[in-house]
Amino acid sequence: xxxxxxxxxxxxxxxxxxxxxxxxxxxxxMKQHETYPLVPIVSGQGVxxxxxxxxxxxxAIASWWVNLFGHANPTINAAICDQLEKIEHVMLAGFTHEPxxxxxxRLKNIAPGALGHCFYASDGASAIEIALKMSFHYWLLCGxxxxxxxxxxxxxxxxxxxxxxxxxxxxxxxxxxxxxxxPCTHVPTPDWRYAATGESPRDxxxxxxxxxxxxxxxxxAQTAALILEPLVQGAAGMGMYHPVYLQRARExxxxxxxxxxxxxxxxxxxxxxxxxACNQAxxxxxxxxxxxxxxxxxLPLSAVMTTDQVFQAFxxxxxxxxxxxxxxxxGNALACRAALASLxxxxxxxxxxxxxxxxxxLNSIAAPLASHPKVRNFRxxxxxxxxxxxxxxxxxxxRCFQAGLKQQILLRPLGKTVYFMPPYIINxxxxxxxVEGTLKVLDAI
Length: 445
What we know:
This protein has two domains: 78-348, Type I PLP-dependent aspartate aminotransferase-like (Major domain) (Aspartate Aminotransferase, domain 2, 3-Layer(aba) Sandwich), CATH 3.40.640.10; 354-393 and 403-418 and 440-445, Aspartate Aminotransferase, domain 1 (Alpha-Beta Complex), CATH 3.90.1150. Helix content is 38%, strand content 16%. The chain has 15 helices and 16 strands.
């Protein structure tokens, strides 16, 4: 396929200057862009991003973990264009439309357990807010208003709105806003990087689960739900843990009548090697939060899936007993069509099986990375790779990002953790490029 790159009506420096003057960028200290210029992207194709000067960059982090099937994917493009000719959006209060109904049915068919009801929003943090509110409201309707507390794992990340931030345990996001947040208990993480010398990931996960059980034995009467990131704790540095923790967490939550909320916003849709991370433990949560890859990374869309038991608690003649929560673009038709096209690609291209082959190949060529003298804890889960870099450089993340750009790779370390979460369409030649370029980055800095 030939790729046509149209000349932008502006220079790179012009776009950088205009952006700095008008755009407040997320998770960014704006003053740093006096030293590190913004990268003005004008187009994308497959795993590649192209800037205004014609440089290209391999999108090794799927543009913040969202892009599953590459930029300008023809299947998703066609679905959105088709939907544009029908209806772009209609409010979902009192109305419905075919894309949201079909998407809900398909999600119901592929989700773990009996998660038969979908509530939609626009982003991951909003999905977390919905799940927290639903859980609390459920217990309120069941005559247990005292069950209004939440627990999460140490180092968990669930978003930056106030409810989501309350159950997040990443200091740089949380500490400033602590006076605005509800109390939350963070139980020990099963992340195997914290295991004792000689302790296996499974044994360490079981030890963490015992700590969870001890906490709920004392506090279950005041606890609405446990929320966790299944298998991989993303923003804390891609901490990975054994599936046995999920199995034990499900058993413990059932024993003490506490909801289990699975935040699969980052790890759902094949990222951990199965369609959902919970599949690897053969468990189903009470609430499943989805976003990022849900629409293939194209449009803002999130969903909370839950059980008929939860749904029925709200089903009543009284309006006040309804779940009175809304977003203007809930169930947006364009976003739902993008999601349906993404699910079509999963089925048509047998993506989960294909990813296993790709993961094996990248692991086979990554031996020089894993054995690099600066690298610690090289690890892999599905289509996620991560490792720590041993360095005293306080500016490591920014310098790694800049060095990556020089190698035509988009890397965005989490502190001193470098990770790969590429689009699933990455091929062997591009994986070679990624590994070789990352080695050059490590040697350069």
